[in-house]
Here is the input.
Amino acid sequence: MLTEAVRRRPYQVILFDEVEKAHEDVFNILLQVLDDGRLTDGQGRTVDFRNTIIVLTSNLGSDLLAHQPDGESTDMVQAEVMKAVRAHFRPEFLNRLDEIILFSRLQKADMTKIVDIQINRLQKLLDDRKIVLKLDDLAHAWLANEGYDPVYGARPLKRVVQRSLQNPLAQLLLEGAIHDGETVPVSANGEGLLIDGKEAAAALV
Here is the structure.
């Protein structure tokens, strides 16, 4: 599958997410690609990988980064993270990588923009019905707080938006409580989101 995709489109970015979980056979393949710039498939065809960019991600050492205070440089834990990386991957594999980049963990201050991205995606689902979501600062702050995790970053946010906003909106639309062309105000209190002044969770009861 990989060789066929690159054979058809030789100029592309190839992502191996959470590569530390990959089978040993995957690393044997990667060693060949990183060393020779090409790979031979099961049918004996050799595919050129020299025009691809291969990106590998890993969560090794993420527990160390998760406990860093906000704003602290990754330099403080880089040695320990790299120790975990070297303990897991074979030296011949690491030596073939052009660069190992350590990313700072996502901080709460970054969540506002990510909330906007998720809300814009939800808004596009409503555009055909000309329904406009209008979130105030309280709603933004609630979603940012509930959707943030020190270890997993913003990954929980999509589920929070779906469970706390998208699903209640869908139910209200089915019940006829929200009509096409309306502007729907969304706020929050200590219990959760408020849609048009009413608890969003109540729509699902």
Summary: The chain has a mean pLDDT of 90. The CA atoms of residues 25 and 118 lie 37 Å apart. The domain at 2-94 is CATH 3.40.50.300 (Rossmann fold).
